[in-house]
Amino acid sequence: MPERSEVTFPSGGLRCAAYLYRPDGAAPDGGRPAIVMAHGFSATRDERLPAYAERFAAAGFVVLVFDYRHFGASEGEPRQLLDIAEQHEDYRAALAYVRGLEGVDRRRIALWGSSFSGGHVVAVAAGDPEVAAVVSQAPYVDSIPTLREVPLRNLLRMSAAGVRDQLGALLGRDAHLIPAVAPPGGFAVMTAPEAEPGFAAIQGEGTRWQNGVAARLALKLPLYRPGRKAGRVQAPLLVCVCDEDQTTPPAAAVRMAAAAPRGELVRYPIGHFDIYVGDAFERTVADQLEFLRRHLA
Question: What domains can you pick out in the chain, each with its CATH number?
Fold first, then answer.
């Protein structure tokens, strides 16, 4: 089994917690390729990401799996503050940390993201020509088609809660949280039929996941369109699309793959959360390993 250790790295004056996986044996001359990974909307490093990291490390990659500031085992107050710009900074800080590790070839480092972070890795890679490859799985590409899937009453409640939370932040109050996930008909950011059982299916042992995010995100979320930066990504970009996705519209992800200069597209007849488990996981991780070996080996 690959070795896993607990590490931290600095980002924005705080410490991000991470798992660092190293393959068995000494690193070859020139160092090993590496992968930097983080999860999607509100999720932490323990929600099935170790399953991917173990496969990647067994194939010879050094892997860093981290929690964003304010989430999981990482530092940051208030808790559950999902700030898109900060999460991009955390990815860049994780890249800097891995680039400085002994036994890593800094010219062969990939970014991996899933769902919300599937958009993050595209945005970060668009500004960093040294990134060697990108995997974007079931990605959040564009808020406009995504928010069209959210019931209008929930959008209105989210907006009101966002104003309340932002005003409270200015007055020094604790964050006002809204649920990340709820069953259909409930109030949360995600209420598709697949959402609640999907999150339950990926919960890791000892997870620190909490079903909530600071509501102020609702004021910025409509402007988040990371897929529009795909044309600036110089690295090979693998986009893994779930054709039955009820959470992140697949058509936008297909367009993103086509817009990337070195985009590659793989499609699966599954829902958003199916990609993390069972046969769909096995097929997906095999496709991702083939892509990563081809471009980083």
Answer: 3-146+224-296 (3.40.50.1820)
